[in-house]
Amino acid sequence: MLEASQDPRIKLLTYAELEEAKGYVGNFEVKIRKKARFIDESKCTGCGDCAKVCPVEVPNPFDLGMALQKATYKPFPQAIPNKHVILKEGVSPCRTGCPLGVNAHGYVALIAAGRVEDALKLVLERLPFPGIMGRICTHPCQEQCNRSSVGGSIQIRALKRFVADHGKVSLGGEVPEERQERVAIVGAGPAGLMAAYELRRRGYKVTVFDALEAPGGMLRAGIPPYRLPREVIDQGVAPLEQMGVEFKLGVEVGKDLPWRELLQGRDALLVAIGAHRTVRLGLEGEDLPGVWQGLEFLKAVNLGTPPQVSGKVVIIGGGNTAIDAARTALRLGAEEVHIYYRRGREEMPASEEEIEGAEEEG
Known about the structure:
The protein has helices at 2-5, 49-53, 93-97, 104-112, 116-124, 130-136, 140-144, 156-166, 190-201, 218-221, 230-243, 259-263, 294-302, 320-331, 352-361, and strands at residues 16-24, 27-34, 57-59, 68-70, 72-73, 85-86, 182-186, 205-210, 246-249, 268-271, 312-316, 336-340. It is an alpha/beta fold. α4 runs antiparallel to α5 and α4 (104-112) packs across α8.
């Protein structure tokens, strides 16, 4: 094969399979499927360094599946050309289930190989706040995990939290190329922070405005500290400041700062103010003293002005906000907390782990 590959009259179709052959001697017609290498042949030297660092092992077809090989490999020892390929079998369901497309399969494999720093780098390619999402994400990736049918899904969210807490990789760093365009973002919640990161990493000058005195939006105002410690939010925001994102806090746009003035000298505006208004039931007595809307109650507690709570407390609703309000009320001194929901426990939209946590707390 080596001699044939050096003959200019012969073109080798390597890493390919014969699917069909028909015709007769002297007039054959064949159908060949050339498989994708996923490695640039012009750059591969056959050194094997990629196989050494690949964390994924698969059955070796050259040994009839009786031994393992890395997912990056040479098809067989005497392969012509002496180049590597990557075995890819589509996109993992956990990755397609993630709204951000985070490569959960990849970073779980890296963790299993003991490469925590590399796992965190992979997460940061798509998600700049792994410490936050490793605690509060609703983890649709786990619902798509193939292993859920054989003993339970991989705890992907917990592993994301692990690499965020123990990895030493920094999100910040130098912006590759400074641009002249200036962008204003109103709202320092999840959407505003994510947009600020993506714009800044592309070189735009970004200023974020928020009415609260600290960034985070509903992360800080709506989620109790026992679920999301405030220092984790601060750790997530700090790299943005290091990258050059400017924060103007305690500024209510439209009141403290006119919109027209905000737009002066800026090329674009993103409004990311979130959904701070609750859905009211429209029932008589909804505005009586002692009756709180769920988000308003949590915001009052989280921002340092908790209401007086005692005796029996009733929570209407079955979502995560209801569970957070119930556990918060109990911690504020309520003697009893009861959750009323129009359907059964199985239909409650709150995550199962939060429901179980509330039951354990009383």
